[in-house]
Amino acid sequence: MDAFFAAVEQRRNPDLTGKPLVIGGSGDPTRRGVVSTASYEARKFGIHSAMPLRTAYKLCPHAIFLPVDYQEYSRVSGKIKDVLREFCPIMQDVGIDEAFLDISHIDKPAEAIANEIKIKIKQETGLTCSIGIAPNKLLAKIASDMQKPDGLTIITKNDIERRIWPLPVRKLWGVGPKTEAHLKEMGIETIGVLAALPMDRLIERFGNSYGRYLYEASRGIDESPLVTHWEPKSTSREITFEHDVSNWQVIARTLAELTREVANDMKQAGYKGRTVTVKVRFSDFETHTRAKTLTVPTNTADETRTAAFDCLKRFELKKKVRLIGVKMGGLEKV
DNA sequence: TCTGGGGTCCTGCCGCAC
DNA sequence: TCTGGTGCGGCAGGACCC
To answer: How far is A208 from A213, CA to CA, in rounded Å?
Structure first.
């Protein structure tokens, strides 16, 4: 979907259309939080996802700031996924506003299917999306991003050299800021230059798994199947305090509350978990975790809290605490 | 002075069992 | 009894995704 959260807000309040709009946090740009989505008008000011709201505010003080309304976006997302499943049941969900469809078995030109999907989504939700058509997920993902918004891009194997290789390495799924910087140091800025590297060199530099991945991805190779069903492996809750906290009572009370929520989520979804991890981020942004694995899986608030406090006790709380969180891993169905 | 929240996967290290 | 290789679970941290 194109600027999904912003587009949903503009759809339900047309006054916002055509204006710089920033969705993130509590919607108050003087408080802690980051940008979830910026409208295309806001992006012209240099505002982008993951940017601190306060920075966004400095870049464009007259932008409209709104809180994230996950309930509403999930509802719209559900409608979109329903449309997609109608066209093709082999669907892989990728978060709230993306999906892969394997349409290889459908006896109709891919472009025609894509156009019908775009029209149907527009009818059902009033929103535009961008679609990429390619022989695999890796290339389809890159293609979908090439003509945003409201785009439709087709990439074939023969296009890799001409259309993929000139792109910056950052366009590859799995290459983030760290790897980008690392590659830049090696003098590698485009996917094509990366593709010229021997596999040995990449494995030496990035390890076996990731090295191989980069070697194949830079050549447009991706054999990974669509994952149409998966089970959650962990569930968590965390919160950044509005102001850093040194009061142990406040930290403990917050952890207890988060623990209740995690236990609740597990019960609601019908899971039990074995490994409790407590995460603490200090005022200097240093982040640490402590984990405890239980002998028997649980989903009760009491047992989860006891384990969480065992973990919390193992922290030296010398610095002020910025964030506290708790995660239950090793989930299994009840 | 700033840097959310909910996830997944990988790596390196350690202790333990065999 | 000591040493070493190997496999594995647990743990901590890091990179990445939406």
So the answer is: 9
The CA radius of gyration of chain A, in Å to the nearest whole number, is 23
Annotation marks residue A238 as catalytic: no
Question: Do residues A47 and A59 both lie within one domain?
Answer: yes
CA torsion sign for A262, A263, A264, A268 is positive
Name the closest nucleotide to A281, judged by C1' and CA: B3
- Considering the domain architecture, whether residues A92 and A144 belong to the same structural domain is answered as yes
DSSP A264-304: HHHHHHTEEEEEEEEEEEETT--EEEEEEEEEEEE--HHHH
Q: SS3 for A193?
A: helix
Q: What is the CATH number of the domain that holds A278?
A: 3.30.1490.100
Distance A107 CA to B3 C1' (A): 49
Catalytic residue among A72, A86, A98, A303: A98
pLDDT-based confidence at A318, cuts 50/70/90?
A: confident
Determine the distance between A325 (CA) and C17 (C1') in angstroms.
20
> What's the CA–C1' distance between A224 and C8, in Å?
27
Q: Are A215 and A138 in contact (CB under 8 A)?
A: no
A228 within domain boundaries:
no
Statement: the pTM of the whole predicted model exceeds 0.85: yes
Nearest of A297, A306, A303 to residue A334 by alpha carbon: A297
Q: pLDDT digit string (tens) for A78-131? A: 999 999 999 999 999 998 999 999 999 999 999 999 999 999 999 999 999 999
